[in-house]
Amino acid sequence: MGILNPKKRDDVSARVIAGETVVLDRDGGRVHQLNATASYVWERCDGRASSTEIARDLSEEYDVEPDQAANDVATLVGQFRELGLLESAMQ
Hints:
The chain is α+β, with helices and mostly antiparallel strands. Helix content is 41%, strand content 18%. It has three helices and three strands.
């Protein structure tokens, strides 16, 4: 259903400002400000880690239940994909 190993598009820029990630999508003409959890997931969308691995790490880092972390990661990866910030699953 989701991208097995989510990967940020190479042409999307991101900067950390005051502890939050700001993502610039020039093609889409949009700027996205991510909260701490979304920033954590975004940084791990490198094409190497699976959504399951990202959720496990999120659970450990933020001391949340594994099921909640899995739901959060699935939601965020889905949102990143809807916004066109991730490479397509076809690659």
